[in-house]
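Example 3.2
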Amino acid sequence: MNEEIRILAINPGSTSTKIAVYIGTNPVFIQTIRHPAKELAPFKIITEQFEFRKQLILKELESADIRLDLIRVVMGRGGLLQPVESGVFEVNQKMLEDLHTCKYGEHASNLGGLIAYDIAHSLPNAKAYITNPVVVDELDELARISGHPLLPRRS
């Protein structure tokens, strides 16, 4: 049977978490979970919100009768990592460590890969990916010239 891939997309932002489920390229569920400031106030750093946001996502999916066992791809918004070219990246241990420790900075998008990995690894036959992290660097070499050799431009 040629079944279309089911994808769970997770986009954590500073005041909301957007989620969607796709069958192939067709969205079958889209939801924005709002996070009022007082709800997030108890969390000192962004990664402390991991379990809180993950549980909200799972609750929304359950309320919408989304069958998680059919999900094959969990896609998170890319976070602050080392600069990379645009694309899709399978979440790996090094990436998880960098996102969890906020090695390259603290941003809500760091939760994307962390939550995607955790959910994917609780499902049969699912993998976790991130796409186009906020650190995409495709700046042309000529554009990196700033006029001073000690001050190169970064993307």
